[in-house]
């Protein structure tokens, strides 16, 4: 066991919650996962917390780290009012955890910030001063990790809601309830499904869906590069598992930047600049562990 | 005189160089300015350095701070190969300064990063962990100041070259030599001039040019907000002096964000969130002083 003690990790997504306990990030990555579908807050929270209370009885948990879908209101550690998942509005992680595990510290951040943090500590963004993590799945999210900490600022980045130029001939209205055709509205997994009529990952890699998808994702990365100047961009999420998609995005980013920023990372070394997660699909739950272990350390200061 | 000593400041723009010396930022802001038109590097550098050598003879300069147009190659402290100003490619600030002022430390950053830094230290971004500075003039630039330091990352932000959706009916090709219709190509001062046939600031505030301009600038801020989550956005540069333009941008950012990030800064307090520079038009030269005074301090460590 390391000096942060035993830590619980919750990767709280819109469709499922992934729970784990461990005393190191490797134990979290490799160990048992308890998975609960995200239904009503009452039902889901009860199942999740029951499991952690049982684990705590075996080995006391110093902290629980929560990597949650958002937006998050850090003033109350709650899922914010504007979340698209209506029933979860205002649900407070702090309240739910502390009611059942009185002695555990709580670390909370967005799922995306947590995954980016995990990639910085143990994955593909190690030793970088400025790193971006982008996830493309049911929704689209992004994090900036600067000097080892996720950027919060006003609240936290909501990269899925940036705007990008529509590609010629694409008349799809977009799926974002708030913005219509923002990046997420045009290019998230849901948008792929709705635009093309059935669920994305069933398309072959040479389907036109992925040509268009790579156009939008490349434009999104151009915006991240020109605004935040990351030294590496990590692209995770279910959609990025499509064969060849990451390579298409790389080529289009390089072409669109057109040599304006004269760095080899945006030319011959683009393959090392835009990369898959070093932690594979474990970035989220390992990120939750990172939040929990930091909270445990802070508690003892 | 303060502990950093007497410092020279150069705001090096594409049309002119503004030079000043002083022992505090207020002296730089309020004191004499020596202004040289930006012509050939040889001619311009000779005039600039002659003036500083004379000032140095009166009171030795501990450092020279340079806030330069870019892109900048920090490996050689030069103006990078991809600058649109051909004759200045590869011109090294370090070489030019050290040849004439052997004992002066040199601080160098982009004009935009320097102005953002000045706004953080003494202007409208004081005490903010995450601040954005955007300048809209002949070109468009932007800086992120995080925990008091301009973000560099891969190189430095080049926010003018982000992409935004074209507004309906706008068929203008864009002026950016590298990207055509990136933000700068569609909305910089040069683009306003070319699209509408004559120089922007001559248009009345109710001219359609400013309606379109505010559309593009608002979309740019939406991208900065969603990607970097600044706690304040400062908008400087000649174009922002147009009456009512800042207010139009505020309204459109608020409307476009549509409450998704539930913060008063993006609703009722938008007027305190998107603001004019606290240092007025002095951000650049005061930023150059900030770079110089920091270099003087670093030198003595």
* Whole-number tally of structural domains of chain A: 2
Helix proportion range of chain A: 25-40%
Give the N-terminus to C-terminus distance of chain A in angstroms.
19 Å
Largest sheet of chain A: 5 strands, mixed
Radius of gyration of chain A: 19 Å
Structural class of chain A: alpha/beta
- CATH superfamily caption of the largest domain in chain A: ATPase, nucleotide binding domain
Detailed description of the structure:
2 copies of one chain form a homodimer. By secondary structure, the first copy, chain A, is α/β, with parallel strands linked by helices. Chain A folds into 2 domains: 6-114 and 281-300, Nucleotidyltransferase, domain 5 (2-Layer Sandwich); 126-276, ATPase, nucleotide binding domain (Nucleotidyltransferase, domain 5). In chain A, 37% of the residues lie in helices and 19% in strands. Chain A contains 10 helices and 12 strands. Chain A has helices at residues 25-30, 41-58, 93-100, 111-122, 183-187, 189-196, 208-228, 245-257, 270-273, 283-299, and strands at 7-12, 16-22, 34-37, 63-68, 72-73, 78-79, 105-110, 130-136, 140-146, 149-150, 232-236, 274-275. In chain A, the strands form 3 sheets. A 5-stranded mixed sheet of chain A has the order 3-2-1-4-7. In chain A, α4 packs across α10 and α7 (208-228) packs across α8 (245-257). Chain A is globular, with a radius of gyration of 19 Å.
């Amino acid at each position: 066991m390391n000096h942060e003690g035993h830590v619980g990790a919750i990767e709280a997504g819109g469709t499922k919650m992934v729970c784990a306990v461990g005393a190191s990030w490797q134990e979290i990555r490799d160990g048992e996962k308890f998975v609960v579908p995200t239904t009503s807050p009452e039902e889901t929270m009860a199942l999740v917390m029951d499991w952690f209370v049982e684990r705590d009885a075996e080995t006391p948990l110093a902290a629980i780290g929560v990597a949650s879908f958002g937006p998050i209101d850090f003033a109350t550690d709650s899922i914010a009012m504007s979340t698209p998942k209506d029933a979860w509005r205002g649900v407070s992680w702090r309240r739910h955890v502390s009611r059942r595990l009185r002695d555990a510290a709580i670390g909370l951040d967005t799922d995306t910030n947590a995954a980016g943090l995990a990639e910085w500590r143990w994955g593909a963004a190690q030793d970088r001063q400025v790193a971006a993590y982008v996830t493309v799945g049911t929704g689209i999210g992004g994090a900036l990790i600067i000097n080892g900490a996720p950027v919060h600022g006003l609240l936290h980045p909501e990269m899925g809601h940036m705007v990008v130029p529509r590609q010629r001939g694409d008349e799809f209205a977009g799926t974002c309830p708030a913005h219509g055709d923002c990046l997420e509205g045009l290019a998230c997994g849901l948008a792929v499904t709705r635009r093309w009529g059935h669920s994305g990952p069933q398309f072959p890699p040479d389907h036109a869906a992925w040509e268009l998808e790579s156009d939008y994702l490349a434009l999104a990365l151009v915006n991240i590069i020109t605004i935040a100047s990351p030294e590496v961009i990590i692209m995770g999420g279910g959609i990025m598992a499509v064969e060849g998609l990451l390579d298409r995005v790389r080529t289009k980013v390089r072409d669109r930047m057109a040599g304006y920023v004269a760095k080899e990372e945006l030319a011959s070394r683009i393959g090392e600049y835009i990369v898959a997660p070093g932690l594979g699909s474990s970035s989220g739950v390992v990120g939750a562990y990172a939040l929990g272990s930091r909270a445990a350390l802070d508690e003892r200061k």
